[in-house]
């Protein structure tokens, strides 16, 4: 962790579990101005890790017979997804990003559309800091944009629009706001004490500032820790701690949040093109990460402006790691607009390998 901090990350903190043993640590600062140190128990905006919580809530409703995975979304939300698209796109396609509906974020943040040439890249980030988006407004932006592919195609394309729709579906079938349902039936069921959808722009409790560099286009990096998350509530709105994330994934993979049959559905993966252009093995709100050294892990990663988090649990449940950082998009761009390697990249991958594999040799299932 000190290596990550030395490489240029202001602050990094984590919890690693190995069987009954737990290690927590932190390195660096939560505030570059005051030098206040980061601590392992700090709260973090965990970004797209929120999607696993949403997917678990949907699967609970599948278990109760209120939602069918392969039913068309238009049957549940005809006003939001009308016509042929509503008939072709299923609930499963939303969960695993094979719906062909593009991400609304470039339309909600118009200054990002000129990336990487725009000098005013941060304009939308600042303008949207306290803006209250309605889910229907964001969904409309995604549906109005050119599709990324045919519904149910062999390779998915990651899109926050899918999860905005799943939030509306949850509300439709439960008669409860999605945040309330997830809080009661996922967060509280897992016994998480520091995980919540914030009801304002501030994070309650001890937390770090969150520095966004946007590939060197915001220099010096700007603090976005105070931010209204209505732009991505169901896709990336949660605040949590590393301890809570490890607890959540341990319970999920142990069949305590959804049953084993639902978990098996969540672990059926397809190739999905992520927002950074890489391809990931994606199930229903779960990533599969396979390491040659120490086996298969399940979990998710997440970023919002200024904060990055990853949480992975080995398939046998015995090894877990959750890591948080407080600077995002630190790589600078070359003349063609391509992000260049940075010492933080190698330092973080060394940390993750150590956290996932420890001093072990041999491959686990």
Short summary of the structure?
The protein is an alpha+beta fold. It is built from 13 helices and 14 strands.
Walk me through what this model shows.
The protein is of the alpha+beta class and 365 residues long. Helix content is 31%, strand content 18%. The protein is built from 13 helices and 14 strands. The strands form three sheets. The protein has a nine-stranded mixed β-sheet with strand order 2-1-13-12-11-10-9-8-4, with helices on both faces. Strands 6-5-14 form a three-stranded mixed β-sheet, with no helix packed on it. A hairpin with a 4-residue loop joins strand 9 and strand 10. Helix 2 runs parallel beside helix 8 and helix 2 packs across helix 9. The chain starts with a helix and ends in an 8-residue tail after the last helix.
């Amino acid at each position: 962790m000190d290596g990550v901090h030395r490489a240029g990350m202001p602050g990094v903190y984590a919890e690693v579990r190995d069987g009954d043993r737990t290690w927590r640590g932190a390195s660096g600062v939560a505030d570059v101005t005051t030098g206040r140190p980061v601590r392992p128990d700090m709260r973090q905006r965990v970004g797209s890790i929120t999607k696993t919580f949403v997917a678990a809530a949907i699967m609970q409703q599948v278990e109760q017979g209120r939602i069918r995975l392969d039913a068309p979304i238009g049957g549940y939300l005809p006003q939001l997804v009308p016509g042929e698209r509503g008939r072709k796109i299923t609930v499963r396609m939303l969960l695993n990003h094979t719906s062909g509906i593009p991400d609304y974020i470039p339309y909600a943040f118009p200054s990002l559309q000129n990336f990487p040439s725009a000098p005013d890249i941060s304009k939308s980030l600042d303008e949207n800091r306290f803006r209250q988006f309605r889910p229907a407004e964001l969904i409309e932006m995604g549906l109005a944009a050119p599709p990324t592919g045919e519904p149910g195609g062999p390779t998915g394309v990651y899109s926050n629009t899918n999860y905005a729709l799943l939030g509306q579906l949850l509300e439709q079938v439960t008669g409860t706001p999605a945040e309330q349902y997830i809080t009661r039936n996922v967060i509280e069921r897992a016994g998480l004490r520091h995980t919540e959808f914030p009801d304002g722009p501030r994070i309650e409790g001890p937390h770090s500032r969150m520095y966004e560099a946007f590939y060197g286009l915001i220099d010096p990096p700007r603090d976005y820790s105070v931010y209204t998350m209505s732009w991505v509530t169901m896709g990336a709105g949660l605040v949590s701690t590393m301890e809570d994330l490890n607890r959540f994934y341990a319970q999920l993979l142990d069949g305590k949040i959804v049953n084993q049959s639902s978990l098996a559905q969540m672990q059926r993966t397809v190739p999905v093109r992520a927002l950074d252009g890489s391809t990931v093995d994606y199930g229903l709100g779960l990533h599969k990460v396979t390491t040659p050294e120490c086996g298969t892990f399940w979990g998710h990663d997440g970023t919002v402006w200024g904060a990055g988090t990853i949480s992975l649990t080995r398939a046998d449940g015995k090894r877990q790691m959750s890591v948080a950082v407080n600077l995002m998009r630190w790589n600078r761009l070359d003349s063609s607009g391509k992000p260049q390697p940075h010492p933080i990249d190698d330092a973080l991958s060394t940390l993750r390998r150590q956290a996932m594999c420890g001093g072990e040799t041999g491959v686990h299932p």
